[in-house]
Amino acid sequence: MSFDESLRRALASLSTHKLRSVLTMLGMIFGVGAVIAMLSIGAGAEKQALEMIRRMGLSNLLVRAKEYRADELQEVRKKSIGVSLRDAAGIEEAVPGVAFTGPRVTVNPWSVRARGGKSEAKVSGVSFRHAELVSLPLSAGRFLTKEDEESHAQVCVLGDGARRDLFGQEPALGGVVKVNDVWFTVVGVLESSSSGGDSFQGVPVGSTSHEVLVPYTTVLRKLDRDPLESPLSELVVKLADGTSPTEAARLASALLDRLHGGAADFELVVPEALLAQSRKTQRLFNVVMGCIAGISLLVGGIGIMNIMLATVLERTREIGIRRAIGARRRDVLVQFVVEAFVLSALGGILGVVLGVAIAKIVAASAGWPTVVTAWSLLLSTGVSGAVGLLSGFYPALRAASIDPIEALRYE
Q1: Which of 186, 192, 345, 387 makes the best surface tag, with the fewest CB within 10 Å?
Q2: What is the pLDDT of residues 358-380, one digit of tens each?
Q3: Distances in Å between the alpha carbon of 359 and those of 4, 24, 35, 295, 363?
């Protein structure tokens, strides 16, 4: 008997007992669905992590000023002025493997306006080399220059979201933006990018979409700030190729501790270590979810084996008749193996549909990115097919070993 004929017989047999077949496939459906959903959510989480690390810079170190309550801040300032340009100079001179540093000053604006509208964008003063520290592709205009920084120029680069808020559909280049009481001319606009969340591994990661970037020297000279605030909100340290971020962070931490007189008014962030921790957590998540999905597939395989054994018992007389008219043991074996495979394959296909649907629902409702990859589809369907074959082999072998005469006598 050919494979095509075995396949037609298998489909006819399964369609005769539709409800039983569907119930048998449930284990496969849920198992494969769980695998697809797990892998897509995991791939989405990995993509989000890489996007956030890209925004921080994988080969960077971040020295961030800690936030304090007003009463605590007064006590801290008796020991240290906070993160400052002195820290930048010290790190560049004393820590091996440091290429350069980029200061960042965050402004708390009460007003960001333009002729076309207003925005709640975050205003940050950055170095002209900031675009070398993190990925900041431009859609129009230019980035800040060294001349802007040295002359304390009143120019700015807008994130795409801030541009829409302030100028709508009008061109932004050459327009003016008022931050508090200071006017800035727009010289560049950043490309649109997904926010990817506000924090990563507990570390705040701002989106550039609703951000206004200006020279940090202009912020320090022309925009009012609390005198007790740290002179710099953040110091981004660019490491040379081949430099160990962990070792550089250890040396920088010891240096900063001395410069700050022992005041713990800064925190050191190593993006590479955050990414490693994220991947470790993701692997643990995959193992746990993989075990759950594996149990579902195992239960599905047991269900298929159970139903196939019952089917062999039901069709004992049919097997005897087929053997009596010339069917070989091999023909009977193939028929029942194909039936088990069809059950698992159909369950796998429905499981793929379920898994993709779960991934889409999670992406839409929870705001988590999900990525359905081709290899996850192949893995889940391949495993379901293999489980079906293994589960169906023993019942098929049992059917093939039935004595034809005893089968004909079976009632």
Answers
A1: 192
A2: 888 887 776 677 788 777 788 77
A3: 35, 24, 11, 20, 6
The Cβ of residue 211 has, within 10 Å, a number of other Cβ atoms equal to 23
- pLDDT tens digits for 87-116? 999 998 888 988 889 899 988 877 888 887
In DSSP notation, 75-100 reads: HHTTT---S-HHHHHHHHHHSTTEEE
Structure tokens at 35: 């695998």
Phi-psi region of 402 (alpha: psi -120 to 50; beta: other; left: phi over 0): beta
Q: Which two tokens stand for residue 320?
A: 């005897």
What is the average pLDDT score of the chain?
81
pTM for the model stands at: 0.65
Two tokens, residue 258: 């001395």
Question: 385: number of CA atoms within 13 Å, CB side?
Answer: 10
CA-CA distances (angstroms) from residue 290 to 39, 178, 369, 380? 9, 53, 20, 11
Report how far residue 144's alpha carbon sits from residue 43's, in angstroms, rounded to the nearest whole number: 35
Angstrom distance (rounded) from CA 312 to CA 139: 68
